[in-house]
Amino acid sequence: MKRPMLTQREAAAACGVSRSTIRRRREAGDLPGAVSDETRGWLIPVDDLLAAGFRLNAPAGPDATSASPAGPSGHHQEHCSGDQVAALRAELAAERHGRQLAEADAEHLRAQLAARVEIVEHLQRALAVACSPGFTAVPGQGSRTPAGSA
Q1: Does pTM surpass 0.85?
Q2: How do residues 93-117 score in pLDDT, each as one tens digit?
Q3: What are the backbone angles phi and psi of residue 32, rounded to the nearest 5°?
Q4: Rounded distance, CA 149 to CA 142, Å?
């Protein structure tokens, strides 16, 4: 499974600290899995944040001790701790960012492909002209010219 990654800003918000705290901890080596991304800047693995002692914040949910495990519909509901919810939210955010990066890469590849298609079409036209009757090779040059123009 892909490790959820957060930008320094996202990590700071998720942990309830400043970006400079995340930066200092990264520079001190406390976040060894951090990697630099050209588009998003530094990406911090959620696992590294937890291992470094940070706690991920989440809005307080209903108190599990005062509520029945069955919801209003009578179905059993599973309760997650705030840390589990925060980790899932962080993972979801990382997946969304990953999807956005993949979409940007795909768009870049489509543009490269379109440029190469234009080159191939140009070369096909040039080849058709070069192979047409009435064109002869010019001695000493690798190109062909119309007969009688040399």
Answers
A1: no
A2: 888 877 776 776 777 788 889 999 9
A3: -65, -20
A4: 16
